[in-house]
Design a protein that fits this description.
The longest helix is centred in the first third of the chain and has 51 residues. The protein is an alpha/beta fold. The chain has a 7-stranded mixed sheet. The protein has a 5-stranded mixed β-barrel with strand order 1-3-4-5-6. A 5-stranded parallel sheet has the order 8-9-12-7-13, with helices on both faces. The protein is elongated, with a radius of gyration of 45 Å. β27 and β28 form a beta hairpin. It is built from 23 helices and 28 strands. About 35% of the residues are buried. About 40% of the residues lie in helices and about 20% in strands.
């Protein structure tokens, strides 16, 4: 034992430090922190010793006597204490412990020297050293230590005793067992004990791996069993031959559609046509089945000997088999060639409920799957059974749910299918919707063909142009348009309000709502083409009435128009209204959204500037092109538009479409932009009581546009009774409700001159050209100049 040292004590819980090993330590006990601080103020050395017991306040009695002199390599303050990195230097024995400072311990320690082997160069000792290194490297490999780090350890520590210390620190031993190795001063004995511990760890790891392998094998056997069982359940539960019989009575079907839906006359007509065709197909199939059955039965008489069984029984069985086979084949032919309907329209207009009504009219089961957001081909075709958690696709899942092979199958929101690295689900739908292929539809999970030819597929979408063209080509579109306010009122009275009143637990005699109340909710609290938001608002009214009745405040509630604001809050929808007066440079256009139609104001202002065109209001590229075309037309034909040539010099034209936070695009604002530009340049006001729509060309042609019904209804709601629209859109007027069509004055135009004759004050057409009356300019210009600033 060498010279004695007085060192601060570093008590360790469940940790034994060995010489030559760098160890990270967390310290938080006050006495330990104090001892570390004293060491940091000195030569950074401490006496690290393990506790016999895991207690918070270490005393000399709970500390081992043999420890290691360590040096603090790095210290860092962290929340709750210190984080250290210490390096073991050599063994030492505490001769005495003493309390010092406020709470710390100090030790009087003497270094302990290793007992070298009797014959270091002996072959037996060298063999021991080699065996320890080989087995230690093997253990390190099994624990996942990189090969480079293992080689560095073996080559970097030549001394056998230090190598044994290094290995001992990383062995899975208890603190007491490691303490015994620390106290062992004989290098040879220590190496033998460490080698035994390494072998024990290797055997334990091998046993664990063997046990784990057996467990995995057992689990694997069970999981194969479960996969097979699930697969067989799917095969047996699919409706291979289960079907419902179609019973089409057109009068009953028409009554069902009328009961379930108000309005949608064009859609109802198309559905009834569809059912009528199907009824005729079925009747023809049954006739063909009877004829084929009679022919097969007659042929069978010559094939089956009569002496094998009674003649009557043989004939009856032959006829039944022949009739069943012929009927099945004929029915499959009839059903397999029907159209696939695609319902396109804004949300909430009844697309899904019409599909339910078709199923009800046919007497078939109804299945709906939502395709919105589907980005994986496996959603349609299923996963292969080799994948964990594999399942059939949504088509077979829906058929299993229906329990029949000929349900009405609704593919909802086909315009919202996505594409990803996992494939294109719309491409998988091509086979599903193709009558020439779907009688042998093969799901990846099932692995055998399933006949989809008897399924009646119906698809829905909000946007036709977002459906992939190959998929759209396989379907027949039925367009749904938005409801008028009168139609919404009737729908609310017949369906929505009674349903919400019933869901709120109220009877018909307990809650009444006046028509004016519903009309106010429609116009001031909803903005939609359908009626979903309207039903939510009616539900709020019903719940508020239910609360009053439940608290015995009232027995009967009658909701009037003046009560709406107090119950639902202030109006949340502020639709545009017709401008109050004619204004220079302001024209009224019409636009369409899936939520319905409305009017918009196109404002044009001219001033002297850098000869440029300024466009604001979040206009899309198409609307910007329409504005440039309008300006070019005005410059080209200024002489017959009543525009002074001098007004076109150094012209700065600013076109703005209000509601700047809303993006706008489309060609149908072309005539409104042209009218606003000509009005601003000529100083003649545009009529405030006329709304217009149509695309223009540089030569002044007015081209047809879409969404006429919604646009006109939006203008009607805004209080406008006179509209200008392309002549080619005249057939679209038939889609308007009778009360709207009879109350409108419609001007049809094929040239921009015709539009301006209707839209500008004091303008008219004579001999194919525009003529302007004099003295027609009003005093009020609404802030716009009568002509360009000169």
């Amino acid at each position: 034992m060498g010279d004695r040292l007085r060192l601060p004590v570093l008590p360790l819980r469940e940790t034994v430090v060995f010489p030559g090993v760098a160890v990270p330590i967390s310290a938080g006990r006050p006495g330990t922190v104090e001892a570390i601080q004293q060491a940091m103020d000195g030569d950074r050395r401490m006496f690290a010793v393990c506790q016999r017991e895991n207690v918070d306040e270490p005393t000399p009695e709970v500390l081992y006597r043999v420890g290691v002199i360590v040096r603090i390599v790095q210290a860092q303050r962290v929340r709750g204490g210190l984080q250290l990195l210490i390096q073991g230097e050599g063994r030492a024995q505490a001769l005495d412990f003493e309390d010092t400072g406020e709470q710390m311990l100090a030790a009087v320690a003497g270094p302990l020297d290793d007992e070298s082997p009797v014959a270091p160069n002996d072959a037996a000792f060298e063999a021991l050293d080699e065996a320890l290194r080989e087995r230690a490297v093997e253990l390190g490999r099994k624990r996942g230590i990189p090969e480079e780090a293992l080689n560095q350890l073996v080559e970097g520590v030549e001394d056998g005793g230090r190598f044994a210390d290094m290995v001992a620190f990383y062995l899975e031993l208890s603190a007491a067992e490691k303490q015994e190795l620390l106290e062992q001063l004989s290098v040879e004995t220590r190496m033998r004990r460490v080698l035994v511990a390494v072998e024990r760890d290797l055997l334990r790891m091998e046993a664990q791996m063997e046990i784990q392998q057996k467990v995995q094998e057992e689990l694997g056997e069970k999981q194969e069993y479960q996969v097979i069982r699930t697969y067989l359940e799917w095969v047996t539960e699919l409706p291979w031959n289960e079907r419902t019989d179609d019973k089409i009575v057109l009068d009953d079907a028409e009554q069902i559609l009328e009961e379930d839906h108000y309005g949608l006359e064009d859609v109802k007509d198309r559905v009834l046509e569809f059912l009528a065709v199907r009824k005729l197909q079925m009747e023809r199939a049954e006739q063909e089945a009877r004829e084929e059955a009679e022919a097969e039965a007659a042929l069978a008489d010559f094939e089956v000997p009569d002496d094998l069984r009674p003649k009557e029984e043989a004939e009856a069985e032959k006829q039944d088999e022949a009739h069943d086979g012929a009927a099945g084949r004929a029915k499959a032919r009839a059903v397999g060639h029907g159209p696939i309907l695609l319902f396109v329209g804004p949300p909430g207009v009844g697309k899904t409920s019409i599909a339910k009504s078709i199923a009800r009219a046919l007497g078939r089961k109804y299945v709906r799957i939502a395709l919105g957001g589907a980005r994986d081909e496996a959603d349609i075709r299923g996963h292969r059974r080799t994948y964990v958690g594999a399942m059939p696709g949504r088509i077979l899942q829906g058929l299993r749910q229906a329990g029949t092979k000929n349900p009405v199958f609704l593919l909802d929101e086909v315009d919202k299918l996505g594409v990803s690295l996992q494939g294109d689900p719309s491409a998988a739908l091509l086979e599903v919707l193709d009558p020439a292929q779907n009688f042998q539809f093969t799901d990846h999970y099932l692995g055998v063909p399933f006949d989809l030819s008897e399924v009646l597929f119906i698809a829905t979408a909000n946007w036709r142009d977002r459906i992939p063209p190959p998929l759209y080509d396989r379907m027949e579109m039925v367009e749904f348009t938005g409801y008028t306010e009168q139609e919404k009122l009737e729908i609310a009275k017949r369906y929505l309000f009674p349903r919400q009143r019933s869901e709120s637990g109220l009877g018909e005699e307990q809650l009444e709502v006046e028509d004016d109340t519903i009309s106010k909710i429609i116009s001031e609290y909803t903005r939609e083409a359908g009626v979903r938001q309207l039903e939510r608002e009616l539900g709020k009214l019903a719940r508020k009435a239910a609360r009053r009745i439940a608290t015995a405040e009232l027995e009967t509630v009658v909701m009037r128009a003046e009560d709406v604001q107090s119950l639902l809050g202030r109006a949340r929808v502020h639709p545009e209204q017709a401008a109050p007066a004619d204004t220079v440079g302001v024209a009224t256009g019409m636009y369409y959204t899936p939520m319905g139609g409305d009017i918009m104001f196109v404002e044009a202002s001219v001033s002297r500037g850098k000869d440029r065109l300024i466009l604001t209001g979040q206009l899309g590229d198409v609307m910007k092109e329409s504005a440039r075309a309008a300006l070019t037309y005005a410059k080209t034909h200024y002489d017959r538009l009543g525009i002074e040539e001098a007004n076109l010099e150094d012209l700065e034209l600013h076109i703005h479409v209000p509601a700047g936070a809303v993006p706008k695009d489309g060609p149908s604002a072309g005539v409104a932009m042209a009218t606003a530009v000509v009005s601003a340049l000529s100083g003649r006001p545009a009529r405030h009581d006329v709304a217009m729509t149509g695309e223009i060309t540089l030569t002044g042609r007015v081209l047809p546009i879409g969404g006429v019904k919604e646009k006109v209804l939006g203008a009607w709601r805004a209080g406008i009774r006179e509209i200008v629209m392309p002549k080619d859109n005249e057939p679209d007027l038939d889609d308007l409700p009778v009360e709207v069509r009879d109350g409108l004055t419609v001007h049809l135009a094929s040239e921009l001159d015709e539009v301006l004759a209707f839209a500008l004050r004091g303008a008219k057409l004579e001999d194919g050209g525009l003529v302007f009356s004099q003295g027609s300019l009003p005093a009020h210009q609404g802030g716009y100049h009568e002509g360009p600033m000169m």
